[in-house]
């Protein structure tokens, strides 16, 4: 399309232009999808339905949310939107009184948002929709115009400085990363079994976080000696893993000596 002013005339003739308008609206309100879903994760709505064992009415869900002044109208709007996004299901159930009751159920998508499941993505969702992670995105245009890094502009320090200086942020990030990478890492351990079985000596995971990957490799292939290498404040909070040594340092200066290295 060449350069020209926007002008709407005949709807049929301007279908392409109207499609462009629709795309802009889609991006305009895209943030709402993530934040409405975040509210459902915070309220543990998927967990409430899962614990009930079957689909639930809005009032049943509301009764399980600890609140003395719950806004059920707002809750209904959240559920309506998440049904439209196929996060939950909604089925109309006719009552003996003739009244129609909407029952909300889980989908394969909302199953991933159960907090107490091993494969849950709920912690990752709460991490990466947290204000500390979204705030730097508002600094992109200023970074382009004036230079600098969006995260530093937003928080006054680099990402890794913040993880070092702010224990709560560090915990939030580590927890989110552990859950978001678990599924991929488990697949690597199982899929590369021939490779791991042939490794000899020590294996160092560079940037290994709290050591989950190398710990699972060593657990599955106990002939391997593991080293989990990351910045000091990360490994300081890492749990003990049998067969794994935690080492803190700077990847840009020196990494532990080992026969095998993982960099992901």
From TrEMBL:
<keyword id="KW-0949">S-adenosyl-L-methionine</keyword>
<dbReference type="InterPro" id="IPR029063">
    <property type="entry name" value="SAM-dependent_MTases_sf"/>
</dbReference>
<dbReference type="InterPro" id="IPR036390">
    <property type="entry name" value="WH_DNA-bd_sf"/>
</dbReference>
<dbReference type="InterPro" id="IPR016461">
    <property type="entry name" value="COMT-like"/>
</dbReference>
<dbReference type="Pfam" id="PF08100">
    <property type="entry name" value="Dimerisation"/>
</dbReference>
<protein>
    <recommendedName>
        <fullName>O-methyltransferase domain-containing protein</fullName>
    </recommendedName>
</protein>
<feature type="domain" description="O-methyltransferase C-terminal">
    <location>
        <begin position="137"/>
        <end position="263"/>
    </location>
</feature>
<dbReference type="GO" id="GO:0008171">
    <property type="term" value="F:O-methyltransferase activity"/>
</dbReference>
<dbReference type="InterPro" id="IPR036388">
    <property type="entry name" value="WH-like_DNA-bd_sf"/>
</dbReference>
<dbReference type="GO" id="GO:0046983">
    <property type="term" value="F:protein dimerization activity"/>
</dbReference>
<dbReference type="InterPro" id="IPR012967">
    <property type="entry name" value="COMT_dimerisation"/>
</dbReference>
<dbReference type="GO" id="GO:0032259">
    <property type="term" value="P:methylation"/>
</dbReference>
<feature type="domain" description="O-methyltransferase dimerisation">
    <location>
        <begin position="26"/>
        <end position="115"/>
    </location>
</feature>
<dbReference type="InterPro" id="IPR001077">
    <property type="entry name" value="COMT_C"/>
</dbReference>
<keyword id="KW-0489">Methyltransferase</keyword>
<keyword id="KW-0808">Transferase</keyword>
<dbReference type="Pfam" id="PF00891">
    <property type="entry name" value="Methyltransf_2"/>
</dbReference>
